[in-house]
Specification:
- This protein is an alpha/beta fold.
- Helix content is about 35%, strand content about 30%.
- The protein has 10 helices and 14 strands.
- The strands form 3 sheets. A 6-stranded mixed beta sheet has the order 6-7-8-3-9-10, sandwiched between helices. It has a 4-stranded antiparallel beta sheet with strand order 2-1-4-5.
- Strand 9 and strand 10 form a beta hairpin.
- Helix 3 crosses helix 4 and helix 8 crosses helix 9.
- It is globular, with a radius of gyration of 23 Å.
- The chain starts with a strand and ends with a helix.
């Protein structure tokens, strides 16, 4: 199976301003958070993926299709929920989503049937006959997701899908997005400035800055059967580290013995026993959630 997205030396300029500068990366299938400071090139990348801008310099493949040569075939596999509202005043919610289905190539009947299903799925079934201009901000976010889903695409691109939502609505939206990935097998590119949204929905995060890829980091430790802990160790730390790495353990500690250790689930007692044998004392062993904020800051600081 080809990568979900693969970019090779993609460069794009708006006149004299360079938005993407030799961008290269490869993403596997699944859910990826697209992160970067303002002006990093995130919006330009999305526009290239969906065919709103031409790929000039470099190569970009999406689900095995060349974005420059196969844009029509590619768009049939994509569902886009843009950041800004793209509503049609006067249409009901179901008519608007059905219209999106017709634009995606569905027949009139199929588009209407799927519009009802999509609106029920996102929690707008009871409001599907209201005019879209009467929808609240949170309802509009759900409506944009419904129109992105109506033609059952394999790949969803969502730009700030929780923007303007209250805490309860945001939690419901994130749960819905996670369900689309886990239960329905959707691929997803989640573009957001809310790092916690990425942590809760995505398996990895791609960080770009000044038009370059700074790094892609896996976030799904729990899904891979690994628990991460903050540790403070004393004693023969280096010998202990060499020993536990042979048992599938990842350990990163500084000269003071402080850092983190990732242990396969159910193996904590084994690792502690190995520590005793190596002459190491655990002064601290606390569950730690990988801090995406720290990761993001570190990657952006390494920008050229």
């Amino acid at each position: 199976m080809p990568p979900l997205i693969e970019a090779d030396d993609v460069t794009f300029r708006y006149g004299s301003r360079t938005a993407l500068d030799g961008l290269s990366f490869s993403l596997p299938h699944g859910a990826t958070g697209l992160l970067g400071p303002n002006g990093a090139g995130k919006t330009t990348l999305v526009r290239l993926i969906v065919g709103h801008l031409p790929v000039g310099v470099g190569k970009l493949w999406v689900q095995g299709l060349d974005a420059a040569l196969d844009s029509c075939a590619l768009r049939a596999t994509l569902g886009l929920a843009p950041e800004g509202d793209v509503l049609v005043p006067g249409l009901s919610g179901v008519a608007y989503v059905a219209y999106a289905g017709r634009l995606a190539g569905l027949s009139s009947r199929a588009a209407m049937d799927r519009a009802h299903m999509a609106l029920h799925h996102v929690g707008l079934g009871a409001d599907r006959y209201r005019r879209v201009e009467e929808y609240s901000k949170g309802m509009r976010q759900r409506l944009k997701l419904a129109q992105a889903l109506v033609h059952d695409p394999s790949f969803l691109i969502l730009d700030e899908p929780t923007d303007g939502m209250d805490p309860g609505g945001r939690d419901e939206m994130l749960e819905l997005l996670a369900n689309l990935v886990v239960e329905h097998g959707k691929n997803m590119l989640l573009c957001t400035h809310i790092l916690d949204d990425v942590q809760r929905v995505c398996q990895r995060a791609l960080v770009i800055s000044k038009g370059k890829a700074m790094g892609c980091v896996e976030l799904d430790r729990a899904a891979r059967g690994v628990d991460t802990y903050q540790v403070v160790l004393t004693g023969a730390v280096q010998g202990f580290a060499d020993s536990v790495r042979q048992h599938g353990v990842t350990i990163r500690v500084d000269d003071e013995g402080e850092g983190d250790i990732s242990i396969p689930q159910g193996e904590v007692d084994t690792v502690i026993a190995l520590g005793r044998e190596a002459g190491v004392e655990f002064r601290r062993l606390l569950p730690a959630r990988e801090r995406l904020e720290d990761l993001f800051a570190r990657l952006v600081r390494t920008e050229p």
